[in-house]
Every structure is written in C-alpha cells, then in structure tokens.
Amino acid sequence: MTKPLMLRGMGSHVPFETDRATVWSLRFEKSDGAKVVIALGEWTETGLQYLPYGLVAIFDEAAARGFTIPDNLGSARGYDWR
Predict the structure, then answer these.
(1) Residue 74: its pLDDT value, please?
(2) I want to staple 10 with a disulfide (CB 3.0 to 4.6 A). Which of 27, 44, 60, 78 is the partner?
C-alpha cells in the first residue's frame, strides 16, 4: 500500500510590489520520513535560483534549508504546518 504525502510546511515571502505574504514553497512528507519541497525556482549552474514562473523539486534537506529568496520569511523548507 502506498503511503500518502502530507503537507507539512510552507515558505512565504513578501514581494516588493505588495505588503502581503505569498506562499512560494510547500514541503510534503510521508510517514516513512521521505520529504520533498516544491518551490518557485530552477536549478542553474550556480545552484538553486528563485524563478516565479518555474517549479523545482528539492529532495535534499540541506538544500531546502539553504534556498532563500529576497523578501523571504524563511527558507524553502518553510515553517512547520501540522
């Protein structure tokens, strides 16, 4: 039986053109501990870059914690949401 993915966290930022926080990443986890972060961005030669019209899947915890963007209220890993 497949274990379901559960939404466990989200990252937000405040774009310069608005004063409201906007979601830019979501963290999903399975009961067996597997995690993935889906964020607005892309992989480049220099690493992860914010791209508001692209999506990137991050399977590495350190990479998700290290990926931040301007006007960010935390990393792509986001804060816990349970």
Answers:
(1) 77
(2) 78
Contacts of 32 (CB under 8 A, 6+ apart): 3
How many angstroms separate the CA atoms of 70 and 59, rounded? 22
Per the CB < 8 A criterion, the answer to whether 11 and 23 are in contact is: yes
- Give the integer Cα–Cα distance in Å for 69 and 30: 26
pLDDT at 71: 66
- Residue 52 backbone class (left: φ over 0; alpha: ψ -120 to 50; beta: rest): alpha
Q: What are phi and psi of 55, to 5 degrees?
A: -125, 140
DSSP class of 72: B
Q: Distance of alpha carbon 58 from its chain centroid, rounded?
A: 8
| C-alpha to C-alpha distance for 15 and 32, rounded to whole angstroms | 35
